[in-house]
Amino acid sequence: MKKIDTAQKALALHKKLGGKIRIMPAAPVRNRADLSLVYTPGVAAVSMHVAQNPKDARIYTGKGRMIAVISDGSAVLGLGNIGPLGALPVMEGKCALFKTFAGVDAIPLVLDTSPFAKASAGQARYESEIDFIVNTVLAVAPGFGGINLEDIAAPKCFEIERRIVEKLDIPVMHDDQHGTAIVVLAGIINALKVVKKKIETARIVIAGAGAAGSATAKLLHAAGARHILVLDRQGIIDKSRAEAHKKELATFTNLKGEMGDLKRALINADVFLGVSGPNIATAEDIRLMAQGAIVLAMANPTPEIMPDEAKKGGAVIIGTGRSDFPNQINNSLAFPGVFRGALDNRVTKITMDMKLKAAKAIAALVPKPTAQKIVPDMFDKRVAKAVAKVIR
Question: Most buried of 48, 114, 278, 286 (most Cβ within 10 A)?
Answer without folding.
Answer: 286
